[in-house]
Amino acid sequence: MTPFRDRTEAGQLLGEKLTNYANRPDVLVLALPRGGVPVAFEVAKTLNASLDVFIVRKLGVPSHTELAMGAIASGGVCFLDEETIRAFDVSPEAIDLVMEHEKKELERRENLYRKNRPETNFRDRTIILVDDGLATGATMRVAVMALKPHQPKSIVVAVPVAATEGFSEFGAEVDEVVSVILPERLWAIGHWYNNFSQTTDREVCSLLEQATCQLSAT
């Protein structure tokens, strides 16, 4: 399986797998910042759908920050992976410190990305949640948890690449799960991109503005 050139190409290929959602006014593409935004931008463009962000922050294990022990989302929703916490013997105090740090970053991103944009209404919408990949699924899981109380019509999880285990687990939690690549072994999400450079805040804001302009022009 050939890696994606970058997040733009990944989003274009993912969009091709979601064309049954094209040109539907109820569809809303929600990106998980920051890496999910360039992917979701291409998906929204392909589907002629609205694009917005849903802020979720991974809670990294202190000794292995890339490994998620949980996640938090807008609205105070929190998911903790008790199995990972036990495996790495993470103390409650350490969890609280990580959570406090990530809450501050979540609030910073909310203020920066949303600016003067009104709160999005998710009720009776078909939500397509997009990220640049699915490894442990912690951030995506907490996003789904945070969205369900808003009573969307359906929730679709869409990613360019996913761990097989994480992919199958979501089948019971959402209405559909879509992935371009399902490798036998994930290794790391970045392994499936030739260019996996960090997406900046400036890029996120620029893509959100472009998406709004494009939809207004159609």
| Helix proportion range | 25-40%
Class from secondary-structure proportions: alpha/beta
The 3D shape can be described as: globular
Task: Kindly estimate the percentage of residues that lie in beta strands according to DSSP.
Answer: 15-25%
Q: Mind telling me the C-alpha Rg?
A: 17 Å
Biggest beta-sheet profile: 5 strands, parallel
Q: Would you list the SSEs in sequence order as H and E? A: HEHEEEEHHEHEHEH
What's the end-to-end separation, in Å?
36 Å
- Within the largest sheet, what's the order of strands? 2-1-6-7-8
Please explain how this structure is put together.
The chain is of the alpha/beta class and 218 residues long. Helix content is 39%, strand content 22%. The protein contains seven helices and eight strands; from the N terminus they run αβαββββααβαβαβα. The strands form two sheets. Strands 2-1-6-7-8 form a five-stranded parallel β-sheet, sandwiched between helices. Helix 1 runs parallel beside helix 2 and helix 2 packs parallel to helix 7. The protein is globular, with a radius of gyration of 17 Å. The termini are far apart.
